[in-house]
Amino acid sequence: MNASEQSASDRGSHSTPALYDAIAGIYDPWSASVTEDIGYYVETSLDSAGPVVELACGTGRIAVPIAKAGRRVIGVDQSAAMLDMARAYAEREGVGARLDLRLGDVCAPPVPERVPLVICPFRSLLHLEGDAAKLRALCAAAALLEPGGRFVFDVFAPSREDIEETDGRWLEREPGIWERADWDEAAHTLVLSVRSGDADVSFALHWLDHRSWERLILEAGLVVESLHGWFDRRPFSGGEDMIWVCRRP
Length: 249
Ligand SMILES: C[S@@+](CC[C@H](N)C(=O)[O-])C[C@H]1O[C@@H](n2cnc3c(N)ncnc32)[C@H](O)[C@@H]1O
Known about the structure:
By secondary structure, the protein is α/β, with parallel strands linked by helices. It folds into 2 domains: about 5-155 and about 210-245, 3-Layer(aba) Sandwich (Rossmann fold); about 160-200, no CATH class. Helix content is about 30%, strand content about 30%. The chain has 8 helices and 11 strands. The chain has helices spanning about 5-10, 25-30, 35-45, 65-70, 80-90, 130-145, 160-165, 210-220; strands at about 50-55, 75, 100-105, 115-120, 145-155, 170-175, 175-185, 190-195, 200-205, 225-230, 240-245. Helix 1 runs antiparallel to helix 5 (about 80-90). The chain is globular, with a radius of gyration of 17 Å. Residues about 1-15 have low confidence and may be disordered. S-adenosylmethionine binds near residues 18, 58, 78, 105 and 127. S-adenosylmethionine binds near residues 56 and 122.
């Protein structure tokens, strides 16, 4: 049974497909230019003893390179179609046996194991609306960690320039793949729409400033080991990108 079939049987015939199901086939070409984070997460994984849990692992863009570097990865995602892409990618790269893919929610991941490293790359926590949902995910990540283990994730908070440059405009991000950002600065919400061929989907991202993230991280029982402003590990100095390295005491 592939992940799509498993998903349908888990959720019953009245199930709602996950949002990313509709764009699983174009996700990799759509995000082709995003490569700066791969080395960062691979190095972070090699610094830890393994295995690694990746929350919201998608098509394996990060998980497969980590598996190729030698670490076992448990990947969790709510989109069965994205997991099918990840499985196919891992098989093509010869690391299918190192990737354990599980359909589930980042707020209640189906992972009984305890690990030294949990990651959640590419702003995935911003899909969760509101502080309560974000806190649930942070608590779930903390609960997966062995004492001393790390939770590493990245998020962003847009600059005024970024909002003004992109708001309400369709941009051809990759050949044949169009993207539009509709920003609501007061509500801290970005509605991102993607179109290519038959695929047409919009989803919301809900950002927070760094002080709010720090408060939630502490509330989840984690400590902040470092906050980077980019994947070269430069310290955060108030820019758009935040890469949080948190530790379970
Ligand atoms: C931007 S993609 C990131 C995928 C991958 N981590 C990467 O770096 O390419 C966001 C992923 O989050 C997943 N996702 C969103 N909300 C989720 C939730 N509540 N539980 C599990 N997965 C979720 C989506 O299905 C999608 O695969």
